[in-house]
Structure formats: C-alpha cells, structure tokens
Design brief:
By secondary structure, this protein is of the alpha+beta class. Strand 10 and strand 11 form a beta hairpin. It has 50 helices and 36 strands. 40% of the residues lie in helices and 13% in strands.
C-alpha cells in the first residue's frame, strides 16, 4: 500500500523564494507558484543535472534523442519512417520498479556517538577519604623520580580527576520515532554511503548496511511478450511467418533488433512497436548488426550464410552471401565462409550499407563489398584473417570443428559524433586467442599493427573461456563540457583535434585481463621514386599507430565488454556486472549478476551434445548492448533495459522515498568527493563540483526544514497510525539537526544552521532537541564558533537539568568569544567547576593569576580542615564529617599544579594547545611574578584588589615567598614537577624578564632552610636542584659549598622509598661536582645504599675487594647480574695482576662463598671453575653435611657442563680435569650420581673412564646403590668378561628374588601402586641390556639364568592372569630374553657363535623331569619369531609402496617427456643449415642461443624467425 502524498508547506519559505532555478538565479516573482508534493519539488530541484551530454558507445549524431523509457508499454502505432521514429522517443526519466538492491561490501559503520574528544576525556579518580594519601604524581610520571625524565609536558589528564562522566546529553527518543513519511532509525547512522535509511521503505540488509542501487532495470514487456511467444497475433501475420522461434542475439542502436533461432529478425522501435520481421530461414541467427543510420540490418547464421536487409523493404534480403566449399576455395574460384561455419561476428564498415565484415567460429574473417555494377550484383570478398584447411573436403573436417573453434572477435571502428583522421582508413580490429590485429581497408588493405598475448596472460589456457576474447571501440566524439577527460597519450594525438575531440580507443580482453589502446595517425615524410620519370620526390605518408592506455586484471574471466561512455566500460563477469573507469583505473560500480541468465546462441547445440552446456552459457557477448548510456540485456525469459544511476538519480530516488535526510547526507558526500560509486554528470575538478553541489545541498536543507515544520506535514496521514496512538517525530527533528550540522561543516557556512534552523526549533518550542543534537559536534571540536544566544541556551539547559558536569566539558570546546562570561563564571563558581572556570579566566578574560588565587584558597581550606580534624576524638566521626567534602576540595586544589605546568610551558589548560607567543609571554610573566613574589600581594589590580594571604591563622605572620612556600608544603613533588617542565622553556633564558632558573633555585633553597619544612620536601628540593644543575650549567652557577650541602642532604635522608631517586640525583650532581672528603662521602653513600655510585668509584680506583663487597651488599642487584658482575671483576682484576685474581680479592670471594652458594649453586661453580678452581673443595665443604644433592649439582655442572649449560665458559679442557678438581672429587661425583641420577650413571662413568679413577671405590659405589649395569660395564671394560657375566647372573638372581618378595608384599595393594615392582623391573632390564663381549658358554649361562628367572617367577604365580603385576613382570622378563637373543644373533664377536648349537645346548640344559623349561623356552622363541615375522611383513609392505611410488613417478616423467611439438627435421626451415654442428672437438653446440619449434613441426633459429 503506497504512502499518502506529502504536500508542500505554504509558508514564508515557499518554493518560489527558497529554491534556485536551474540557471542559478531566483525565479521571477510573477511566475506561477509550484504546487505538489515534496518529492516533486525535489525532482524539479535536481532536474537540471539530468541534461548532460549524450555519450553513445557508437558515436551518435548530435540531433538524435536519447532512449528513455517510462516503464509503461506504449500503444501500437504504424511504422512511418526513421525520422518519425526518432521524434517519438520519450523524454521522461525512467521511473519503474527496481531490482532488489544489493548491499555493498564494507565494514558496518559506527553510530555517531556523543562523546568528548580524546584530548579532553579524563577518567574519574577513585574516591579518597580523609585518611587516604593525598593525590600524587605516579613515580613513572614524576620527573623527579628515578625513571627516565619526560622530554615533553605531561598531559593534564594524568594530574586531576574530571568532574563529569562522558555520557551523551541527547535525550532518549521514543522507540516509535519515525522519519519523514516512514518509520526510521531513532539515531542517525553514518553509513558507508552516508545515508540515513528509512526502516520501512528500504529495510536494511542482513549486515545492517544500507543497500545502494547501482543499475535500474525495466522489462520491455511488449517486446518480451512478442519475441518470447511461440505464436504471434494474427494482426502481425502479414509481416512474416507465424513461427518466430526463440531469441538468440541482440542489436540495439536506433532500433531493437532480435535474431531468432528460426532465422528471422524482429525489429522494434523504442516504444516497443514491432516495425518489421526480416529473414526467411538459413538457420539460427548467430550474429546481428544495424547500420550507422539505422536503415539496414545484417545477419549471420549458423550455416555460414550472410544476409543484408533494407528496413524499408524487409521481406527479402537486398544482398545475400552464401557459404562456399573447400573445393571452390582450392580452385581459386571463390572466397568466403565454409558451409556449416557458424558466423560469430558481423558489422558494417563505416557509413556504407553494403560493406560488411564477418568472422566465423573457425577463425576466418572476411571483408564483403556487396555493390552492384550496371545493376548486377558484383560481390567482392576479401579474406583478412585465418587459413583454410585445404584437404579437398567439401564440408568442415571433424578435426577442424573440434580443435580450431575459438570464436574470434571482430569490430570495425564506428563513426563518431566528431570526425577523426583515422576514419579514412576503415580500421578493423580482430582478436584471436594469441594476438590482436588491427587492419585497414583503405587506401589498400593492410595490417597496421598487432599485439601478441603474453604467456599465461589472463590465466592458464585450460579453460575454454580463456580462448575467447571480446573487444569494443569507442569512436572519436566531442569532449564533454569542452575539455579533455581522457589521459593524455603522448604526441600521437592530432593537434588539430586535441582540444575538441577524443582519440578512438579500443578495449579488448583475454581471459581475466582487459587492455586499452588508443589509435591515432602519425605522419612522416618519405622519398618516393616515380617509376615513369625516375624522379624522386618527398611525400608525406600517414600510418596508424597506437599507444597503451591501461591494463586491468579481474578476479574472474571476462565474458563481455561494452563502452558505456567515453570514460567508462561495462564489464560482464560470471557473477558480476561492473563498471570500469579508465581515469581512475578501477571499478567504480559492481553488482551481483548471474551471467547464465543471458541468452546464448549456442544453447540449442547443447541438446545433441555438440557443445557442452558449461561452455555454451559463456557465449553471451551478443546478449548485452549499450546505446546512449542505456544497457539492453537479452535474457532467457525477457529483454530488459537499464541505466547506470548518476548522482542526481540517487539523490532523487531518496527524495521520492521521502528520506530527505539521507538525500542531504548523500549530497554532502558528493560535495566532499567521498561518495562511493560513479560520479557521472559531475565536473572533474573539485571547485566546479562544489559549486554545482553546494547550491543543491543548501536548497535541500531549506526545503527539508520547511517540510519538517510545515502545518501540512503535522496534519497529513504520516502523523497518524492505524491504532490511533500517533507517531513520535523526535527522530525526524534530531536527524534534521545532525544532517544539517554535517552539511554546514562541509560547506563551511553555518548561517542556515544557526539562524534559520534554530529559529524554527525555537518557535516550535523544541529547542532542547536542537541543542542536544548540536552538542556532540561541539564536544568533538567540529564546531567551535556558536552564536552566544545558542551557547546561553546550551548552558542553561544543563543547569536546569542539574547536570553541571556537562557544562564544564561544553565550555572547554566553545570558542571563548562565544561564551556569556558572567553566566559561565557564576555557574562554574556555584558548582565548583574549576576546569571550566580556568578556561574562562584564561581564554576569555586573559587573566592567568585569578585561577591561582582561587585554587590557593582551596589549599588553605584543606589545611584549615586538616587542623580542625584534631578536634575529633573518634576516627569514624572524623571520616563521616570531613571525608566526602574534603576529598572533593583536595582533588580540585590539585588542579593548580597541571595548570602551572601548562601555562609556564606556553600551553592552554586543559587542552594543552599552544598559546600565541605574545599571550604566552604575558601569561608567564604574570604567573612567575605572583608565585615567586617575596611577600603577599594583591589581585586583581585596581579598585577591587584584595590581599592574598597564606597564613593558617587569622592575622598570622606571612612568611617570605608565601605562595611558593604554600605550594611546596602542600605537595612538593607536584610543584617541583611543574617547575621542571617550566625550566625547559626558553623564557627563563632571558634574565631581563625578572625571573630565571637561578633565582628560582635560590628561592627554593631558602625555603627549605626553614625548620618547619618537612624532610621529604627538603629531599625533593635537593633532587630537583641536583638534576637541573648539570642540565643547565650556563644558567645555574651555584657555589660548591651549596652543591656539597645538597649532596650531603641526598645521602643523609633516611627515607628508603626515595633511595633510588636520590641516588640518580646524586649521579647527576657528581657529573659536574667533585666532592672533597671522599672517605666520609663513601661512608655516607654506603649507609644510604648508593651502591651504583660506589661501584663506579671502586671500579675507577681498581679497589677490587671493596667492589666485590659492594656487589654483595646491594639488595637490588639480581642474582644473575651479580654473578656476571663478579665474573667481570675477576676477569678485569686478573688482567691487571699477571693473569690471576689478587689474593685479597680471592679471600673476599672465599668468605662470600656461603652466600653465593645460597643464591645459585651452578653459577657459583662456573665462576670458581673459571677463575679460582682451587676453591672447589672449600665450596663443597661450605655446603654442609646435608648438602649432598647440591654437591651433585655443583660437580655435575663442572664435570658435565654440556648437560647443564655453562654460564661462564672456561678455557679449561677435560684433560686437565684432575688438576682442577684434585683427588677424589670425580669418585665423589660418580657416587652422588648413582644416588641421584642412577639412569645416567653408566654414561657418566664412560665419560670419565679416561681419567685416573679409583675403580674399586667406583665399583663399590655402584653395587651399594644397586646400579648393576654400571658395575657390569666396569668389569667388562676392565677386560674381565667372565667376572662380568658372573656378576650379571648374581645380580639377576638377587633382583629376581627381591622382585618376588615385592610382589608378595604388594599383593593386596591397588593395581596402580606398584612403584617398587617397576623399579625392580628397570634394574632387571638394565642388567640384561648390559653388553658383555663373551663366548658361547657365557651366552649359554646368561640365557639359562634368564629363563630360570622367568620359571621361578612363574612358579610363584600359577595363574598370572588374575594379577596385573604378575602379567607385567612375566611379560617384561620374557621381552628381556628376546632382546638377549636379538643381541646374540646380531653379535660381531671375533669368535663365531653357532646359534643352532647354542639352541640345542640350551634345551638340553634344562631338567628332564619336567616340561616347564621346554614350555617356557618355546613360548619365548615363538614370540621372538612372531616379532621377526611382523618385521618382515612390514618390510615387504614398505618395499611394495616404494615400488608403486617409483613406478608412478617414472610414468609421470615419461608422459612429461612425450609432451610438446617434435621437430620434423634437424635443419632450420629458413636458412637450411644444421641446427647442431660439430666443432673441432666433436662436441655438439647450438648454432644460436634459441631454437623455435612451431606446432606444425617446423623448426627455426630464433634469429631466422625474427628476420622472416
């Protein structure tokens, strides 16, 4: 149901007075008043932009009318000639139903927030109570701390809390708010398109992004009903056959011509009237063309026939070109398309009716001159591309029909609206899969140039779509708006036409690549000899040349290209319809579009399988045509016409939908050149564009305001709902203010916003809506200059609402000249808005001392409250009485320090923007004079001056420098931080200003001499002085005695929290001052903890023991840094002492060993091993009686550094290990390893076997700790294999016995708690895996012992399946026997062992009475053989897999080698020389660098090929 129309208001802002006419002047007062609805007025407002220059894709005459369709089928009218037809073309703009809009990709936009700018937004500080610490500078911010001082002023945001929360001041609108005629969003959203979408008229897409209409399509219903029906009405039967068939191809320039699969051609005018039906068969129409003057139609058919029709007598063709045969061609009697060759392209040459060019599917192209001589047809056919398959056949060979079908594209250069020098050449462009060829038919047929396709250009050639290409010409036309819109292309442009016409441009595609070239004529003078006279004369000869104009690569294959205008090309992709702009070299528009919905002339061939369906649907080049900016689409079910919407169309569509806010926003984006999509119809330069759009935007705002506040709108149907509740229009007025603010900012003209629009809101009594929507733009700094009456209203509204915090941030962002000073000051004082008050004082009144006076009074109030707090005896009562009030006062008082930092640095408060130089000079003079005044002074000057006191008591004595003393006592660190920032300003360099750095320092030193100054304040002053003296040595020339006193003050302060800060300050001071009494200073520094300074001194004086003590005493030194420093000290001291550390340093190190070992055992071991290895025993002794594990770590780090990593690599090697460790330490290490690392004990012993060890002690240690594998290895390494086997058997029996006992003890424990059993099994494995070089008897004893152990354990558990631990033990022991057999089989002993003989002896060695021995042996042997069998199967499978992979690879290589073209001979086809020739050494070499083999088999040298 359509919404009711909206009538325009009849008010003072009538259309006759508010809207400019298209000429830019006010309409005559005597003209009729415009009546009608709002959308009609907006259409009239924009209608002058629709009359732009017609830029046809085929160079139309200036007197032709553009094609415009109103969406209503026209009534039938008789055909009355070409001129009558053109006079009937409609003028009205297209107005019809559009396709479903598509959302453009892009991020979801954010809603315009009402927030404070980042410069001023400050988070609220946590609440403080009376007992909490006062606000202070964080140590990482304070310039007096040990952190790196800041080089720039600290933001005031870090000093104080804010007195407001950053919330929007906008009142929440009703949830049922609507916009214009339709319900819309309650808050304005700035979309990527800049539109405020109406929720009901155009629902947002799923992503919430407003869809933007790019093309507007209309179905030509009358043509669709006629062309897509199987039968036509009887009234039209006289024009042709009753059976039309189905559409196949389309031509649209002057008329709409549709080719049918029945061979007929339907011709319609632009009113959809059927004019005629041409053709009488000869197969489906596969190519169609309409002459330049729209009087002749040429058709190409699937059978190879060509027909030419005169539209005045369409019943029979005026010319007919039948196909020929290979026999006729081979005899030289005839040229032409072969019978059965489908015509894929046909076109007229220049303005001639009987000159056409055509191309077929096999790559053959011809020029046909179909004239008459003495009233007799004299057709002349000239082949211009392709070759015949001369094999004597009379039909198309099967091989040709399958291998050479690549559908070449062809297009002659059409005539444009402006003549060009290239017109006389009759240029034709032909595109093949491998090259683009441009030929000229006049004066004689000639190929002017060709461009070869690069390898894999447009993508690999596997896809058949990449064998096809498309091309289109844009002829020479007059420059739009009398200027050149195309990129300049060198000097080949004809100078006579350069200022008035464009150069012809050709676009062509291969696969996914699109090229642009510009074609022009270049002339040169050549000498020509007359063959008759023999004379030579110079003649100016012209030739066609070209210049590349661009290249673009798409993501998909390109199916079709057509020129939309002189600068834009429509590109059809498989799933996209796009517009490419050659000026920006990018897509300016793109929408989703299914290319398979278009008609393909090859679809009929898919029925019998002649052409695959997937290939047929890509042949849609004849289904898209463009004429005068209108796009015609021949679909499978209908024919449509569409247009690319211009900027005026889009704005008008929003106006027609009633969404005038979005219309203003879109206009603003066009004004700023930020609107997405095309900008057709707008000037190229920004100044002209803004002149055109600016006036429209002003008129839109005026008209929108008039409509929003009109009486008609308040009473029309849009103000009511079916339920009778009415509609809340809050969002309408909110959006109007927001959009108007954005538009006025773009125009930089706020007269409408602050005068007309505000007046309307004020008169309607809804000024609160206006101010609430204006405020966000003020807070973000976008609008600063506001009329005082609006400023007063803004401030008053917040004061009435009881929200003074909003007033403060509002005052910050308004220009001071726009403020009502009295209103602002009274409001700020009443609500304690000191940030805003300071802003008013400094920026509006230029008074920089008044804020200091007000904040000093707050400091005095805090001090008085703190003194009065002593009257309270109860802490809770004191907290409840003074806490909340005093907290607010303290936080406000602290604003004084960032204010001083900003002003003394030449910045405003709180925005920190630079002050003008003259104003900053005055501000600094006033503040310095007041702060460092020697006595109390009055302010302000004049009759209202008051004495500013600082004493805590009424009538008390004022101290010297009262204000500096007060600020220092309140918070010394914050005050000195502000001064430290001020010291960087060059203002203090000039002593003539009356203040300098030296004067300030002297004042501070004088203040701290007072006994009432707290020690912490004294310490901060000393830090301040010490850090600034070396920074400004030319300005701070202080006596050495004062510096010495400052240094002592830094060292004697007992506050540990400032130790590092004081040490850093002392380092600064020592850089310019060398103190006396060094021993006393050293003692003070040690007591103060200035270890960094002491280390520097001791290192400089080479006092190594003292330096080591300093390192050890420093509690802040990390242990890793400690050991690195000790290593460095020992290394440097050894260089100065003939390669060894001094004895006193070694003694100091020895005394410090307990502490070092406690810090890190391994690092201590590294340091001692590198520098003092003789202290190893001392260090091991220092570990105490219970430090065995630490001893193991210590020795492990020294002896096996590769396992633990060396912290300090030593130059010692393993060869001098005994000399470094002494006697017994290696044995001790092995013993400890057997205790703490039994798994690696054998490896450790192997690594130390080359050292002189006490092997008896080592063997005892191994046996005592049950490391049996190590003991067996030792015996075997000592060449005592028999003893090793005996020990192994004994160990094995012992472990088996312990294993059985452990199993009996743990029979009642949970299944998972078998730790002891697992340990025994690990020991048993290690015994069995210990390698021993032995004879057959020894192997027999070992195997027999292992089998006997398994039998013994099995006898203990007759039914092992009932116990998990028994199954685990027996399976582990059997696997151990398998490993022994495996070692026996793979042994490489010098004495060969017979496995069968050993096997027999092993069976016979068992007891004969029972079969347990044999059964157990059989079980083990069976498991072993199964294991071997599985390994063998795995090898067989692996071999088969490898064989198969090798076969496939070899087969692939063979196929690859078989690819390509084989040469037919070994000699060059051009020079007849051998490609390979033998040199004196009989080594074949190539006679040229490259050899070229063609697909026909011919082979040439590359040099010969280039010459040919």
């Amino acid at each position: 149901m359509s919404s009711p129309s909206i009538t325009s208001p009849t008010s003072d802002h009538a259309w006759s007075e508010s809207l400019l006419s298209s000429s830019g002047t006010l309409p005559d007062p005597g003209d009729d008043q415009h009546d009608g609805d709002y959308s009609t007025r907006m259409e009239e407002l924009l209608n002058d932009d629709e009359d732009g220059p017609n830029e046809g894709s085929e160079g139309n005459e200036d007197d032709e009318e553009g094609f415009l369709y109103n969406g209503v089928d026209a009534t039938d009218s008789s055909f009355s000639g070409y001129h009558d037809l053109m006079s009937d073309v409609l003028e009205e703009p297209i107005a019809h139903e559009a396709e479903e809009p598509l959302a453009l990709p892009g991020p979801t936009p954010e809603i315009l927030q009402v927030e404070n700018s980042g410069t001023f937004a400050r988070a609220a500080s946590p609440a403080l109570n009376i007992n909490s610490a006062r606000p202070f500078l964080h140590p990482t911010v304070s310039r007096l701390r040990s952190h790196t001082p800041q080089s720039s002023p600290v933001s005031s945001n870090s000093w104080t809390r804010t007195s407001f929360t950053p919330e929007s001041t906008s009142h929440t609108p009703s949830n049922e708010s609507s916009l214009s005629r339709i319900s819309s969003l309650s808050n304005l959203q700035i979309y990527p398109l800049g539109l405020v979408e109406s929720a009901a008229a155009k629902p947002p897409t799923h992503s919430g992004v407003l869809a933007r209409e790019v093309f507007r399509w209309t179905e030509l219903q009358d043509i669709t009903r006629h062309a897509y029906s199987s039968k036509i009405p009887k009234a039209s039967s006289v024009l042709g056959s009753l059976s039309l068939g189905s559409p196949t191809v389309l031509a649209a320039n002057g008329f709409i011509c549709i080719g049918m699969d029945s061979g007929k051609i339907c011709v319609y005018d632009f009113k959809q009237n059927l004019k005629c039906i041409c053709g009488d068969g000869n197969g489906p129409v596969t190519a169609l063309a309409l002459s330049h003057d729209h009087t002749y139609v040429a058709s190409g058919h699937s059978s190879g026939h060509l027909q030419l029709f005169d539209l005045k007598v369409p019943q029979h063709p005026v010319r007919f070109v039948p196909p020929t045969t290979l026999v006729a061609v081979s005899s030289g009697r005839k040229e032409g398309h072969l019978l059965g060759s489908k015509i894929v392209s046909i076109a007229f040459v220049a303005e001639r009716h009987t000159a056409i060019v055509s191309a077929d599917e096999h790559g053959l192209a011809f020029y046909h001159s179909l004239g008459k001589v003495l009233f007799v047809e004299a057709a002349d056919t000239l082949r211009i591309l392709g070759k015949y398959p001369l094999d004597g056949s009379t039909v198309i060979p099967a091989s040709l029909s399958t291998s050479r079908i690549y559908h070449p594209s062809m297009a002659p250069l059409p005539m444009g609206s402006s003549s060009h020098v290239t017109d006389k050449y009759n240029i034709i462009a032909l595109l093949t899969p491998t090259k683009i060829v441009v030929v000229g038919l006049k004066p004689t047929p000639k190929t002017w140039f060709k461009c070869v396709r690069q390898a894999n250009e447009g993508g690999p050639w596997k896809s058949k779509t990449r064998w096809k290409g498309n091309l289109a010409w844009f002829p020479s036309v007059l420059h739009p708006q009398g200027k050149i819109n195309q990129p300049k292309i060198g000097s080949i442009i004809d100078a006579s036409l350069e200022s008035t016409s464009t150069t012809p441009c050709l676009v062509y595609t291969w696969g996914s690549v699109m090229h642009f070239i510009r074609v022009s004529e270049s002339r040169s003078v050549q000498s020509v000899r007359n063959p008759r006279s023999g004379k030579t004369q110079e003649v100016e000869i012209g030739r066609i040349s070209y210049e590349d104009a661009g290249l673009w690569t798409a993501e998909e294959d390109i199916f079709m290209v057509q020129w939309l205008n002189v600068n834009q090309v429509v590109v059809l992709l498989p799933s996209t319809l796009a517009v490419y702009d050659i000026r920006s070299s990018s897509l300016v528009e793109h929408v989703q579009f299914d290319s398979t919905s278009l008609m393909s002339p090859s679809l009929g061939a898919t029925v019998n399988g002649a052409i695959p369906y997937a290939e047929a649907v890509t042949e849609v080049a004849h289904s898209l045509r463009i004429y005068k900016g209108k796009i015609f689409l021949l679909g499978r079910d209908n024919i449509r016409v569409g247009t690319l919407l211009t900027w005026a169309d889009r704005i008008l569509s929003l106006v027609e939908a009633g969404d005038f806010l979005s219309a203003i926003e879109l206009t603003r984006l066009y004004y700023l050149n930020e609107a997405p999509g095309n900008q057709n119809g707008l000037p190229d330069d920004s100044i002209s564009r803004q002149l055109v759009i600016g006036e429209k935007m002003r008129d839109l705002m005026i008209a929108s305001a008039s409509y929003a506040f009109s009486d008609d709108r308040m009473t029309d149907g849009t103000h009511f709902t079916p339920d009778g509740r009415g509609v809340d229009r809050t969002s309408l007025f909110q959006g109007l203010v927001k959009i108007s603010c954005l538009a006025c900012m773009a125009l930089e003209d706020f007269e409408f916003l602050f005068e007309d629009l505000y007046q309307r809101f004020e008169e309607a009594g809804i000024s609160r809506i206006y101010t609430s929507q204006l405020e966000p733009f003020i807070l973000t700094g976008q609008i600063r200059l506001i009329p005082p009456r609006i400023t007063q209203r803004l401030v008053a509204l917040h004061d009435e609402d009881g929200a003074p915090q909003y007033v403060e941030r509002l005052i910050w962002h308004i220009d001071p000249a726009c403020l009502d000073i009295n209103q602002a000051i009274h409001l700020c004082q009443r609500h304690h808005l000191y940030d805003a008050l300071i802003y008013v004082y400094t920026r509006a009144l230029r008074d920089y001392v008044a804020p200091i006076v007000d904040l000093i009074n707050l400091i005095r109030e805090v001090q008085r409250e703190q003194l009065s707090s002593f009257d309270f005896t109860d802490a809770a009562e004191k907290e409840a009485t003074l806490g909340p009030r005093l907290e607010t006062v303290i936080l406000d008082a602290y604003k004084l320090y960032p204010y001083l930092a900003n002003i003394l640095s030449g910045l405003t408060y709180p925005s920190e923007e630079p002050l003008p130089d003259d104003e900053a000079l005055i501000a600094k003079k006033d503040v310095y004079s007041f702060i460092f005044s020697g006595r109390s002074t009055t302010w302000p000057s004049g009759e209202e001056a008051k004495l500013i006191l600082t004493s805590d008591e009424v009538g008390g004595v004022e101290p010297t420098y009262p204000y500096a003393r007060l600020l220092l006592n309140f918070d010394a660190e914050s005050f000195l931080h502000s001064l430290d920032l001020a010291f960087e300003d060059s203002f203090l360099n000039d002593e003539l200003q009356g203040i300098s750095r030296l004067v300030i320092v002297r004042i501070l030193l004088e203040i701290i001499t007072s006994e009432t100054t707290p020690p912490r304040d004294v310490s901060f002053v000393n830090i301040f002085v010490a850090r600034n003296v070396p920074k400004y040595p030319q300005f701070l020339q202080i006596a050495p005695s004062t510096l010495h006193k400052t240094l002592l003050g830094l060292a004697t302060d007992g506050d540990r929290t400032t130790r590092e800060d004081r040490q850093l300050a002392a380092e600064y001071l020592l850089s310019v001052y060398n103190p006396h009494e060094s021993d006393h200073i050293t003692h003070l520094f040690r007591d103060a903890g200035f270890y960094r300074i002491l280390r520097s001194w001791h290192r400089q004086e080479q006092q190594w023991p003292e330096l080591l003590k300093t390192l050890l005493d420093d509690p802040d030194l990390h242990y890793t840094d400690l050991f690195h420093s000790i290593d460095e000290v020992l290394l440097v001291s050894a260089r100065a002492n003939k390669g060894s550390p001094p004895p006193d340093l070694v003694d100091t190190l020895q005394n410090a060993l307990p502490r070092l070992l406690q810090s890190d055992v391994t690092r201590t071991a590294s340091v001692l091993d590198k520098h003092t290895p003789h202290l190893h025993r001392v260090a091991l002794t220092a570990l105490g009686d219970d430090g065995d594990h630490e001893r193991f770590l210590y020795l492990e780090h020294i002896i096996s550094p590769s396992r633990t990593g060396e912290h300090f690599p030593s130059s010692s090697s393993d060869e001098d290990l005994p000399s470094r460790l002494g006697v017994g330490l290696c044995e001790q290490y092995i013993s400890l390893a057997c205790r703490f690392r039994p798994s690696i004990a054998t490896k450790i012993i192997k690594s130390l076997s080359s050292n002189p060890l006490d092997w008896k002690l080592v063997l005892q240690a191994c046996e005592s700790t049950a490391v049996y594998d190590a003991a067996i290895w030792i015996l075997n390494w000592k060449d005592d294999a028999e003893a090793a086997l005996v020990k192994s058997e004994a160990y094995q029996k012992h472990v088996v016995l312990e294993l059985a006992q452990a199993m009996n003890k743990q029979s009642n424990t949970p299944p998972d708690d078998h730790t002891d059993i697992r340990h025994k099994l690990d020991a048993l494995k290690s015994i069995g895996r210990a390698s021993v070089e032995t004879l057959e008897d020894a192997w027999l004893k070992l195997l027999r012992s292992q089998i006997q152990s398994v039998q013994n354990v099995s006898d203990c558990f007759p039914d092992p399946e009932t116990r998990d631990d028994a199954t685990l033990v027996i399976s582990t022991m059997r696997s151990l026997i398998q490993e022994t057999f495996g070692s026996l089989v793979s042994t490489t002993s010098a004495h060969p062992i017979s496995f069968p003989r050993l096997f027999k002896r092993l069976i016979n060695s068992g007891p004969t009475a029972a079969g347990t021995h044999y059964t157990e042996f059989r079980t083990i042997l069976t498991q072993m053989l199964e294991s071997y069998r599985s390994d063998g199967d795995m090898l067989v499978i692996t071999k088969r897999m490898l064989d198969r992979d090798i076969f496939e690879k070899v087969a692939q290589i063979t196929r690859d080698r078989g690819r390509g073209w084989a040469p037919s001979q070994n000699t060059c086809a051009s020079c007849r020389e051998s490609l390979l020739q033998s040199t004196l050494t009989n080594t074949p070499n190539l006679t040229s660098n490259h050899i070229i083999i063609s697909r026909t088999g011919s082979i040439r040298h590359s040099s010969c090929s280039s010459r040919s």
